[in-house]
Amino acid sequence: MKSRWLEFMLACLLVAGFVFNGCDKEDDDNQIVGPEDVLSWTQTFGGTDVDAGYSVQQTTDGGYVIVGTTRSFGAGGRDVWMIKTDSNGDTLWTQTFGGTDYDHGLCIQQTIDGGYIITGLTQSFSTGDFEAWLIKTDSDGNEVWWQTFAGAYNNAGKSVQQTAEGGYIIAGDTKSIGTNDYNIWLIKTDSAGNELWSQTFGGTRHDKGYSVQQTTDGGYIITGSTESFGAGGGDAWLIKTDSDGNEMWNQTYGGTEYENG
Question: If you count Cβ atoms within 10 Å of the first and of the last residue's Cβ in the chain, which end, N or C, has fewer?
Answer without folding.
Answer: N
